[in-house]
Amino acid sequence: MTKAKAGERLPYLLAKLKTxxxxxxxxxxxxxxxxxxxxxEQFLETLLEAEVFARxxxxxxxxxxxxxxxxxKTLDDFDWSAQPSAERPLVLHLAQLSWIEERAxxxxxxxxxxGKSHLAIAHALKACERGFRVAFATAQEWVSRxxxxxxRNHLEAELRRLERSHLLVVDEVGYLPLERSAANRLxxxxxxxxxxxSIIVTSNRGFEQWGEILGDAMVAAALIDRLVHHATMIxxxxxxxxxxxxxxxxxPAAQAPSRPLLHLSGAGNVLKRVxxxxxxxxxxxxxxxxxxxx
Length: 294
Prior knowledge:
This protein has 294 residues and is an alpha/beta fold. The protein has 13 helices and five strands. The chain has a five-stranded parallel β-sheet with strand order 2-3-4-1-5. The longest helix is centred in the N-terminal third of the chain and has 28 residues, at 40-67.
């Protein structure tokens, strides 16, 4: 009976274990290990590292695809010199993503074209790369999605399914007014996420205008109450990137308030508290040394 050659069954075993990168690198790594007299542990570690890195990269690509970003934006692409109000130390601190683990929220305010969506996508993209599940849509798209689920009598199932995402991005709140029923759907989404998962919101309107946007001051107050309880808020100012790129040095007519605080019935005290928390968070971020995103 012919004795099996050492390692002869490795391709079969690795295929059964579904480790294609180990199989791809096996021969080359084994030769290097023999030539350099590697210990067994180093040989195994090198092969498994290649498999893990490849799986992580594949998983990140899949999460990014499922997030449905309209475009891929990073913090490296952001023009900080054109947007000094962006509070770079705080934004970089947020890029460490500890707030997602804490199920907290981030709110970006400012006129159109000042980089709100860019920063929101950059944080969300980083989250995908770090292993978090993310879903992106505009406020109107979220409402349409939930209304479609309601029409199928599947609203509760859809909200439960969205709970599996660590982070939801609700872009462009306030660009279009919502009907009262639509506002109720948006409230259901935010309410369901409260202390269960994180949200990034971008809006060209300060909170004091959300009653008008949502068509119901009480719904707006209740939504804001849940959104800002654990939130960091950043207001961007200045001229539109898009107008500047077209050579039009015109600032948008609608300017966001210097601080997104208000006199909205039912939410004022909460928002004052969150502003104080945000101020403390800013001081903490400035005192720390945030790492530049890779």
